[in-house]
Design goal:
- The protein starts with a helix and ends with a helix.
- Helix 1 runs antiparallel to helix 4, helix 5 packs antiparallel against helix 6 and helix 8 runs antiparallel to helix 9.
- By secondary structure, the chain is α+β, with helices and mostly antiparallel strands.
- Among the domains are: 88 residues, Orthogonal Bundle (Helix Hairpins); 163 residues, Heat Shock Protein 90 (2-Layer Sandwich).
- The longest helix is centred in the middle third of the chain and has 51 residues.
- The chain is rod-shaped, with a radius of gyration of 53 Å.
- The strands form 3 sheets. It has a 5-stranded antiparallel sheet with strand order 2-1-5-4-3, with helices on both faces. A 5-stranded mixed sheet has the order 7-9-10-12-11. Strands 6-8 form a two-stranded antiparallel ribbon.
- Helix content is 54%, strand content 16%.
Length: 490
């Protein structure tokens, strides 16, 4: 994986970046060269613009040898005057060329032997404008820029300006060295930093991959090492570790749930099987025993039915297919029936059940069986987790905004503070010593939520638990109605 990421980074990022920098450096150098050469060209052009006032034309002479000699002397004199007045001797060289392509005078004072064969001179002579430029190396190997202007086509007098580009090229070479050196430095720096960064990234991803494989092979305790940077990789590490921790915990809860349900199912099945075998052996010889056995079988079958229904409800809740069969009901009437049905069971368990509710109807559109299921689940939990001689209090009262609150509290074992945030999670049981599948509260919370209500749990370890069920009702009694009922009772 590491080599793959590094290869992709090299091809997609590093090479593009490096080539872009080199391209920019090359373009910059070419632009600098063009700019410098254009500056040299402008300097020469500034001199050629002043040639309109230069007079190198020699007239009034015949064709005799004496006239030709005098004419040559006069041309030399005019050329010397022109060269002597040339003020840019330090920047460039000036030649005055006669009609025979000989250099008559040079601003350097050195004699130039032979006829001029330079490209710019030939091109200027052949050009209709009389101007031509040439950049190249002279006979000494020095790079120069030369510009020839034909002053008078009739007598062939020409002027040639020659500027050395050696200093310019040396400066350009120095600048190119600095530019390309800087570019190469940044490319190497990028390569080193990028390599270490990508290697670190690849190492982190590889660790995630290896840990995920361990997790996939059943090692649910596999965790990533601590990551010391607050970035996306660090967030990935935290999310991954949190995920594996949650899945590991969920797996343990699932196993506990399977173990608990298996035990819960075995108990009534054992009772049913045992009493069935007993009744088969006894037959009709002991009617009293047969009646007792049949009652046990009916009760245990009811327990099994309740457990299966609870599992089916949980399955529907997980799939999001739990459907309410709603109609107009009186919530308090449903609560009354549930408390009445459960009172004898609480008495048999040695639990005092205190119930107090308003004598008003609490109408709402709801599923009566589901609402009873919630009440039964919460009351059953309160009784299960309360020791003998304990107390379970059930209160109902109307609140503002047409809300009915049903408060079920006990003085049982309570719930540890660290378990409270997870008490409504599926499979979770704070106390594994008490019977139950661990899904009852999750189902009850979902039913209350589907009725647009809220189920809240407050508890303190060793002191007891309070469950508040808030349900929206169609209307609540007014203060005058409540006062009137109190007056009647008095």
């Amino acid at each position: 994986m590491k080599s793959g990421i590094i290869r992709r980074w090299t091809l997609s990022v590093f090479l593009v970046f490096a080539l872009s920098l080199l391209s920019v450096a090359t373009i910059s150098c070419l632009m600098l060269k063009s700019n410098y050469y254009e500056t040299a060209r402008k300097i020469i052009s500034a001199q050629t613009n002043d040639l309109s006032t230069v007079n190198l034309s020699v007239k009034g002479y015949g064709n005799t040898p004496e006239d030709e000699e005098a004419k040559a002397e006069e041309f030399y004199r005019l050329a010397q005057i022109f060269v002597d007045s040339f003020t840019e001797k330090s920047r460039m060289e000036l030649w005055v060329i006669d009609a025979k392509s000989n250099v008559v005078v040079s601003s350097t004072g050195l004699e130039v032997k032979g006829k001029v064969e330079a490209e710019d001179y030939k091109n200027a002579k052949a050009s209709s404008t009389g101007h031509a430029e040439w950049i190249g190396r002279n006979e000494n190997g020095e790079k120069v820029m030369a510009h020839t202007i034909v002053l008078n086509a009739s007598d062939g007098a020409s002027v040639r300006y020659i500027m050395s580009l050696q200093a310019v090229d040396e400066q350009l070479s120095s600048m190119a060295f600095v530019i390309f050196g800087s570019v190469i430095f940044f490319i190497v720096l990028l390569m080193i930093l990028g390599y270490f960064f990508i290697t670190s990234l690849a190492k982190s991803i590889k660790q995630v991959n290896e840990t995920a494989k361990k997790f996939g092979d059943g090692d649910f305790d596999a965790q990533l090492e601590t990551y010391h940077h607050s970035d996306e990789i660090g967030e990935l590490y935290q999310t991954f570790n949190s995920m594996t921790k949650d899945i590991s915990q969920a797996d343990r809860l699932k196993n506990d749930f399977i173990s608990t349900v298996s035990h819960e199912l075995r108990t009534p099945l054992t009772a049913i099987k045992g009493w069935g075998e007993t009744l088969l052996q006894v037959g009709d010889t002991d009617p009293e025993l047969s009646k007792k056995g049949m009652q046990v079988i009916i009760n245990e079958a009811g327990r099994l039915t309740g457990m299966v229904e609870e599992l089916l409800d949980f399955s529907r809740m997980e799939r999001g297919t739990m459907v309410l069969q709603t109609k107009k009901i009186d919530v308090l009437a449903e609560l009354d029936e549930t408390v009445f049905a459960y009172r004898d069971r609480a008495v048999r368990a040695g639990i005092e059940l205190i119930y107090n509710a308003p004598h008003f109807a609490a109408p709402m559109t709801a599923d009566p069986d589901r609402i009873k299921q919630v009440f039964l689940n919460i009351i059953d939990n309160a009784v299960k987790y309360t020791n003998q001689n304990g107390t379970v209090i059930i209160l109902a009262e109307f609140k503002d905004d047409n809300m009915l609150e049903i408060i079920i509290s006990d003085n049982g074992c309570g719930i540890p503070e660290e378990d409270l945030p997870r008490i409504k999670e599926k499979f979770f049981k704070s106390n594994n010593t008490v019977r139950g599948s661990g899904i009852g509260l999750a189902v009850a919370d979902e039913i209350v939520r589907l009725h647009n209500g809220e189920l809240k749990i407050n508890s303190k370890l060793g002191e007891g638990t309070t469950v508040t069920i808030a349900l929206p009702v169609d209307s609540a009694p007014t203060e005058q109605e409540e006062r009137g009922l109190v007056d009647e009772q008095e």
